[in-house]
Amino acid sequence: MLWKESFRTSVDLIDAQHQELFQRVTNFLQAIKAEGQWTEKIARVKETLTFMESYVVEHFSDEEVYQQKINYPAYEEHHILHEEFKADVFKYAQKMAEANYSEEIAQEFAGKLLAWLIYHVSKEDQKIGEYARQRGAQ
Questions:
Q1: String of DSSP letters for 73-97
Q2: Interatomic CA distance for residues 44 and 87, integer angstroms
Q3: Is 11-135 assigned to CATH 1.20.120.50?
Q4: Model pTM greater than 0.70?
């Protein structure tokens, strides 16, 4: 799995959800790279898209509720990053459906998904964890 302990924010709910996201992205990447015909992989692509469309909404909502609870000062900026990513996920879902789940677009989505997740968790979400630790919040 692509999860690293350095991604931990020390906020249990957020960390558990991040681990789930990393596991799903890992599974998605493995499915795309696996031997076999692309037509056999389309089910995993659709499954991942469906999961991402719902789970990012749930995770971002939970994370934002937590930010508000601890009065996180960069809440608005963080919320905008979430909204932009949700829009990207929905855009890719539509793009893939229109392109009949082409392998090229699925690979592009996987790369963007992984890059965004690593950057966001390792940089932006770490700021939430640091702020929470400074405040003694959990």
A1: TTHHHHHHHHHHHHHHHHHHHHHHH
A2: 21
A3: yes
A4: yes
For the chain, the structural domain boundaries read 11-135
Judge contact between 14 and 63, C-beta under 8 A: yes
**Residue 114: which of 13, 29, 4 has the closest Cα?**
29
Q: What tens digit of pLDDT does each residue of 24-71 get?
A: 889 888 888 888 888 888 888 888 888 888 988 899 999 999 999 999
Burial of 47 (0-12, 13-18, 19+ CB in 10 A): middle
Q: Which long-range contacts (CB under 8 A, 24 or more apart) does 24-33 make?
A: 24/48, 24/51, 24/52, 24/55, 25/110, 25/113, 25/114, 25/117, 26/1, 26/2, 28/110, 28/113, 29/2, 29/110, 29/114, 32/103, 32/106, 32/107, 32/110
d(CA 11, CA 22): 16
- Collapse the DSSP code of 100 into the 3-class scheme (helix H, G, I; strand E, B; otherwise coil) and give the result: coil
